[in-house]
Amino acid sequence: MATHKPVDKCKLCGNVKELRDSHYLPKHLYAFLRAWQLTNPNPVMGVGSELKQISDQYRGYLFCHDCEDLLNKNGEKWVLANVPKDYDAVFPLHAAINRLTPKFAGEHYVLCNVSGEAGFDIDQLVYFGASIFWRGAIHNWRTSTGQRAPKVDLCGYEEPMRDFLLGKGSLPDDIVLTLDVWPYNRVLQMLYPVIPNHLPECQRYWFYVPGLLYALYFGANIPKGARLRSAADGFVAVDQKAADSVLDYTKRGVKSQHSGPGIEKMHQAIAEVRSKTQPRE
Known about the structure:
By secondary structure, the protein is α+β, with helices and mostly antiparallel strands.
């Protein structure tokens, strides 16, 4: 990245200011993926068609200091404080939602209204989710190794979502943002930027940070089931099938890529660490 800070129009407020080195996914989340017990603690990332242990992030000069602060205080800071910070670490929101009486419960799925409930700040959670989907649409993000994030097209909803992030309006009626809390005690320590997964009747995107699976639906024909799960109305789900789909997506992604230099050594180092650690009950 450039060592100087460029002066240009901020993508959020629209004012010409000195721009910060902005991140698509908050940079501190990458630290939660680092394995400090290993000689090389960096997370595994797909670079081209190869898996590597590398410190690399989607970033670019997009936002001014004031807008970075707005994004942080309205969502990022709270979310970072409430997701697992390490493999097998405590996940506060998992414990918090398990204490609630669901509004709906199925065999593999529960839906809770978390408005006003201890452990949840639904406004912060919604703001954070909306900010990530919006960031994905307003810039072609890439890492220093040239890895490009999947393209996101919000079909004209970028401006209404920008107004929402600036506090100038609410999310439009034909946008629904949903949130799932990871259902299992052992949380998947992965990061996925916004990824398309469209339905026949509407557009849908999703992203994942440790313990939180967000989805965004938009268009005139959003399914009723998605509308009933609107996080803006206070609802958060625990969905085992959705979590299993993320696990399957992860496994297929790993299988589709070659192991680059150092990955075998990483597996050996992990085995050595685990041999010295008591099994988790």
